[in-house]
Write a structure and sequence with these properties.
The protein contains 9 helices and 3 strands. By secondary structure, the chain is mainly α.
Length: 222
C-alpha cells in the first residue's frame, strides 16, 4: 500500500524532472524566478513536492535561492562548463574502461546498442531534441554498464548538466557526435578497457574546445 510519504516523494521526483527539463530546454531562462505558486498551478500538484523538487535542484546547481527573491535559475558560466569537462574526463573515462571490462567478463548488455540505434535514428531525422536526449542516454548507458554503483550515483546529477551543455551547443554537427559514439561503442564491445578509456578521453576532449568557443559568445567567464 502506497503511503502519503511515498506519494509525496514520487510527486517531488516528477516535479524535479519537469522543472529541470524546462531549465534545460530554456523555458526557464537564467535569472528568472521560479515561484512555487506558479509551478504548483502549472504542474497541477501541491507546493510540498514543488518545494522538495526545488531543494534538489538547488543542491545540483540548477537554481539559487535568495532571501528576497526566492528560487532563481542559475547562470551557467564558462568556468562551470570547463569544470564539467574536467569531471567527465575522469569519471566517464573510468566508466568506459569498466564497461569494457564488464564485456570481457561476459556481463553483456543490450541497452548500449539500443540507445546508439536511437541516436542514429534521431541524427538521420535531424531532430535536435531527440538527438540531445539520445546522446545523453548513450553516456548514461555506458555509466550504467560499468556496474560501479558509486560511480552511477555520482554521475546521476551530472547527466542533467551534460544534457544542458548539449542543448546549449546544439549547433555542433550531430553526425560527428554520433560517429564518435559508434567508435566508443565498438571499443567497449571489444572488451578492451585501455582502448575504451582512450576513445572516451578523445571523444570528450574533442568536444571541449569547440564547446567553450561557441559558449564564449553567450556565457559569462565566471
Amino acid at each position: 500500500m502506497t503511503s502519503a510519504l511515498d506519494e509525496t516523494l514520487s510527486l517531488a521526483r516528477q516535479a524535479y524532472l519537469r522543472i529541470r527539463e524546462g531549465i534545460i530546454r530554456g523555458d526557464h531562462q537564467p535569472g528568472s524566478r521560479l515561484r512555487e505558486r506558479d509551478l504548483s498551478e502549472a504542474l497541477q500538484m501541491s507546493r510540498i513536492p514543488i518545494r522538495e523538487a526545488l531543494r534538489r535542484l538547488e543542491n545540483e546547481g540548477y537554481i539559487v535561492t535568495y532571501p528576497n527573491r526566492g528560487a532563481v535559475v542559475s547562470q551557467l558560466t564558462l568556468k562551470d562548463v570547463a569544470e564539467l569537462f574536467d569531471l567527465r574526463l575522469s569519471l566517464e573515462v573510468l566508466a568506459a574502461r569498466q564497461a569494457a571490462a564488464a564485456i570481457a567478463e561476459g556481463r553483456a548488455s543490450t541497452r548500449l546498442s539500443e540507445v546508439l540505434a536511437e541516436a542514429g535514428t534521431a541524427t538521420t531525422a535531424h531532430d535536435p531534441a531527440a538527438i540531445q536526449l539520445a546522446n545523453t542516454d548513450f553516456h548514461a548507458a555506458v555509466i550504467e554498464m560499468s556496474g560501479n554503483d558509486l560511480l552511477i550515483a555520482t554521475m546521476a546529477p551530472l547527466l542533467g548538466r551534460i544534457r544542458w551543455l548539449l542543448a546549449l551547443t546544439a549547433d555542433r554537427d550531430p553526425q560527428v557526435e554520433y560517429t564518435e559514439h559508434v567508435r566508443l561503442y565498438d571499443a567497449i564491445l571489444q572488451g578492451n578497457p585501455e582502448l575504451a578509456g582512450a576513445v572516451a578521453f578523445a571523444h570528450i576532449e574533442h568536444g571541449r574546445a569547440p564547446s567553450l568557443a561557441a559558449l564564449a559568445e553567450v556565457l559569462p567567464p565566471a
